[in-house]
Every structure is written in structure tokens, then in C-alpha cells.
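Exam revision sheet. Question 4 asks you to relate a sequence to its structure. Input first:
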Amino acid sequence: DSADQGAPVPPTDRSAGAGVFPGERSTTAHAFATRLADFAPELPEPVWKSLFLQTSGHILAGQAVLQGADSMGHDLSTVDADHYSDLPSAEVLTQIRSQAPDSPELRFAHLLSFVRDINADTLAIAAGAMRYLGSFAVPIDPEGGDTFDIADLSAHLLEDGLLFPSLEDTGQYTIPPVMRAILRRLYDDRDRHSESRSRRALGGSAAEWLKAPASYHSEGFDEALLQVAEAGEWSALTDLWANRGHALMVDHFDA
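Answer key, C-alpha cells:
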């Protein structure tokens, strides 16, 4: 996740309520540090920059890390940047949850936070998983299909700094580490066992995606298998092996 810190932040200022993630967002490390200086007045500039990149400039996310570090008795300048995602304050997380809209974009970001390898295939799997989330009112068109446009959902996440194109691999995406940690816990207070249900939703969607004959040639195949396994969808794995086990053996073990 530390590699995600190099992702650029889009050059547009944003006030509270104007984006997918709740609260204000700064678009420069200096503005970010100025906005949060009361929480850590002596923090060195390189630490501010690292925190800014890991939070995409989201003020509440930065506040969560700073207050979490303080409550644990840590000076953030002594904490390795790879561990910032372990620090978010429970108090600020509650504040974020209370302000977060239960929107398709935010649910999409929440589901993607459980996906390791984000690409076109796994974006589709995450979008498909939204209908498996029981308490979320997913709009359905008259023909019974989902109305979500993956490109539109992704564009909103890119615009708000919740998703970034990888600087190393074309067609791959990353989520800044602190934002990933917060997005995973976004619905804990509203939905009991949120993580297990979200993983089951991803596993169910991945199992459907794997039924396509060409899925094992696709970029998202390995991640789909992981999602199915983590969700405990063993019957889907059994069916996959029974139907295409020989091809899987040739392509994935003998290559």
C-alpha cells in the first residue's frame, strides 16, 4: 500500500458536501497542513505530505489519523508511514459515518476497499456485488437489470481521490492506504457484521463472474478466485473445477 502514496491529487478545491466522501478536501499539502495544524502544530513538512497523499487531502481522514495517534500516545513523526492506516480514531470514524451518505458511489468505494487487484474486471465484480448488500436500496431498471454505470461510478471515485490510476500498470487502480482503511470500516456502526457481509457480496458477484467461459483468461481471474474463497463460496469453486478444471490446470499451473 505504501506505493499508493505517489498518486497525485486532482487540482480542485472542494468544500464539505460536494464529493463522495464526507467533509472538506484540500488539494495541496500546505492547505491540508494549515487546516489540521491545531491537531499537530509541530509536525514536519514531509510527514504532512505523506499524510496528505495517504488521505487524498480529505480533512476528516487526516484528523482521524492525527487524533488516533495522539490517543495512543504517538507522535506521528515517529510512526512509519506504512502504519498510518492503523491509527484512525474511533471517535472521528463515528463522525465520518454520521456524515456519510449511503450513496451508490460510497458503497462502491467501500466494496473496492476489500479488493487487492483493482482493474476493469474487478471494478465490474464490485459493481455487481452492490445488489447483494441486503440493507442497501439498489435501484433496478424495469427489465430487472442494475442501472449502475461502472464508468460513471469510477469517475466519481477518481474525482474525489478515492481511486487513482496506477502509476506503474496501465488499467490498474489503487486506493490510498488510509482511505482504504476508513472505507472498510465505513458502515460498521450502521450494519452489524459489515465486513463479513461485504465480503460475501463480493464473493457472490465473483462467483457469477467466474461462470463466463472466458473468465479464466481474464485479468481479474485470480482476484475473483480469492474473493470467492474468502466469502466461503466453496460450491462455486467446486463447480468451476468440475467444469473447467483441465483448462485451469494447463493455463495456470503449467505456464
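Marking note for examiners. The CA atoms of residues 228 and 234 lie 7 Å apart.
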